[in-house]
Queue: 3 jobs
Job 1
Amino acid sequence: MNKSTPASLTLINVTEQPDADLTSFDCIGFASGIYFSSVAKQLLSFADVHLPENKDVFCIYTYGAPVSGFLKGIREIAEKKHCRELGAYHCLGFDTFGPFKLVGGIAKGHPTEEEIAGATKFYREL
């Protein structure tokens, strides 16, 4: 990506475009909330089938509680396909899973405008 010019960005919702072709992209980003300590299962299934080999990849994700290992599944898929990880951006995200629902959720108000700006900065600096 040339940092002196704006990069084009194509967004694909894998639940709406489950057969999207990624072969023409040089760099592929995966964005997801965290569910059961992993990125969305639909995203993992999509990446396993449709991520081309030897691509640059990055991840952006939100989580309710800071635990490590969230990207294990997507990293395994990228490694299997000989892709190079450029980095990852993460921040808090509103979470109402399981017992958190009983207390009205955790990380209310996240992601903040500052956190969204951080994701934008991360992407632009890839």
Note: The radius of gyration is 15 Å.
Job 2
Amino acid sequence: MKAEKLKKGDEIGLIAPSRFTFGFKKELDEGKKILTDLGFKIIQGKNINKRIGNSAGAIEEKVDDLHEMLRRERVKAIFCALGGDSTNQILEHIDYKLFKKYPKIILGFSDITYLLLAIYKKTGLLTFHGPNLKDLSSYNKKTISFFINLLEYSSTNKKISYPNSMNIIKDGKAKGKLIGGNLFVINSLLKTKYCPDLKDAILFFEDIDESIASIEFQLYQLRLSGILNKIAGIVIGHIETNLKKSELKKIITQITYDLNIPIIKVDYFGHHSKNFLIFPIGAKILLDTKNKEFSLLDSPLK
């Protein structure tokens, strides 16, 4: 199931499903200006400025904002303000039937991965792993250009390719559905009813942690879960850690020593990446290391 593409004049709903927004007014205002300059109108959830502990309000308040944006006819996309550590609280309270009735673009990353994967799993609606509004102004012009190309001008007869600059960890060619997000969140959702089927998927992930041991632990958790034996390929984004690239490659190679699948490392998505290109979760993708091709096989929007 696909949402409709964006058009200038459409409304974009802004919600905060995780962390509170206090202290980020400047960054959020800068993100809003980018979107309004592109011709969109921003509609804020009525509870977006609430706070309980580190959360942007109570569970029911966050869910109400999400449901309200789905029901608003002129709102064609829902963007998340920022990540955090409490999006998983709302998963069991969401009315997923609303996404089938009102399919809309849902965009965010980091802790928002919980929401993106759960929606895709429960409804089949393609969701979008991309910049939260707080971070939008920190990325370069390529991010905005790709954003427009994918979310506004996407069409079935236009091929959308990612940059061919890639660090190839393992050679190969694969086709499959693009599924992933934050590595910690993926591991947290495994074996729950909110985790999509990863059989023959192209798994992508990013993460943020200063501990080498923690990153290595998360990667080995993927292996122990058995997921790595099911997937068709791996795309690794920016890993915010003190790991050197050579050390990360060595760990990945050790963990996937018995897998004959293409694995690449790129730097255009993830925490503190200078460029953040949107990945549509559930879209059909081609990964071909020989020709250095990483591209969508059809449009993720109607």
Note: The longest strand covers residues 173-182.
Job 3
Amino acid sequence: MDTKGFSQHISRQYNEDLEQIITRVMTMGGLVEQQLEAALEALVDGDQAKGEQVVTSDYRINAMEVELDETCTTVLARRQPAASDLRLILAVIKTITDLERIGDEAERVGRMALHLLDEDRQRSPMAEIAALGENVKGMVRGALDAFTRMDAEQAVRVAQEDIKADAQYDSIIRHLVKYLEENPKSVPPVLDIVWATRSLERIGDRSRNICEYVIYFVRGKDVRHTSFEQMAEEATGDRH
């Protein structure tokens, strides 16, 4: 873990508390990545065991969010952090919320995958869906890496991948809508694929959120609801 962006304190325990919080965030992130990987295998490859695994394991991510949130609340109450320490705790609280929601979306993908038959997959743009899945999986990994190192510039690069994810999602939805128009009796399975694809797109959005929290911690700037150009300016300190 890179602690270059953290304040150092007279209290060794305080330093250790902050470092342990970040370590636990990364442990939670690793579990979320595993869930997403399993969900994609269930959706794209039809691995029923992986689908069941995702559906039955989501509680672990939920429990970690609750535990971390309680820890952060305790630090806020006991230490009354200011400046960068306060931004760190707030960034952690927001990040674990988005990680929990990524876990929820992965669980939804796994659940939808359990409804599909092999012929449903054969009639769907699974290659495109797999490409979207790989893209958002990379975004999750990149966002977590940026968070670990508190690297604002990497956070911008990862966040910009959301443009590609949105375009992939739009292309898949257009394909599925066209298929539904030609095959109206296929509504139930196609809707399952639509919801699963929507969840993948939302995972990209959540990953971008995490990147925004990194920039908030490093630069003290709230870049939510801004353009990518503005985000990059705040992350680098450049003004054009």
Note: The radius of gyration is 19 Å.
